[in-house]
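Students often ask why we bother encoding 3D structure as a string. The short answer is that it lets us treat folding as translation between two languages. Here is a chain of 371 residues written in the first language.
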Amino acid sequence: MKKILALVLALCMIFALAACGKKAEAPASADSPDAIPDEMTSKDGKYAVAFVTDVGQLKDKSFNQGTYDGVKLYAASAGVSYKYYQPANGDQATDDDRYDAMKAAVDGGASVIVCAGFMQGGALERAAKDFPDVKFVFIDGWSLGLPNVVGIAFQEEQCGFLAGYAAVMEGYTKLGFCGGGGGTNPAVNRYGYGYVQGAEAAAAAKGVNVEMNYTFLYGASFQASPELQTLVSGWYENGTEVVFSCGGSIFSSITAAASANDGKVIGVDVDQSSQSDTVITSALKGIGEAAKLALEAAMNGKWAEFAGDGSKTLGAADGAVGLPVATWSLKNWSVDEYNAMFADIVSGKLVIDNNFENLASTEHVTLNVVE
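And here it is in the second language, the structure alphabet:
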């Protein structure tokens, strides 16, 4: 697993707008997911691997897109057919809608299905029981106690910590956090809680105090919205310097607000620096590579070894979370200093709490929770 972050960082400049709409007869081998069409037409009308999206758009420049990039990269390298499925009703999708998307993938010939997002849990359990010969990869998930399902979670608190630490070391003391999922998404909650802890650690080291606006308001659907842009614009107008955008397509609203107010943004899941010049860094996790590794195991007879007890939690020790050093732009905290802190997390010298129920103001960070 230690190859995950190396691959993620090598790819971090190419998790961007993909050329889509064009169909191909077969996935040509490519190093860049952007060079692989989002849609292809198989000769027999069957698609061996499938991706079922989370809420939000496929091309969200974040969680959905990053995961699907891993699916496409696997398909291209293995020469297998692939297809994505979006549950009906968009951000109002129900468990039945998600199940229908999974069933469509099975009916379309998929032997392994990658499902993105914790909201897939109920539908995925039903589908896995109904189709025991199909393997399911549950990204941002957990063990369902079924041999054909592996849930892959990440230690988002670790890269959230690094992002918060980086922001304060860079000189920012007025921070913001906007999360998707309405506060019910464990991965987003871990990102945010880690961000607060990192800001506290850097503020303590520098002897400064930090103010942080913190909200899930308008982010429940993971969609961009005028209301969210207005909220964040108000933050910037009142002194907020940098906002951690943690929720798929809400990134568009936050970068628009930042651009209009000379503010800065921290991206999430993939390196989002190519999407906006307001981005100072991104909290990365290896969603695409995790999907790719799971597909390799499923298609090459190594599923039981990979899936283990049905769940995997990946973090710094696996090279699965971090900040993008390939596009480093910070001036007051160096890559060498980052690498030293990363090594401390790997070794266990630095431990970040993952119990986000402990979220609260700290000695040096005052939280203003906007509900």
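Translate back mentally: The longest strand covers residues 279-285. Keep this in mind for the problem set.
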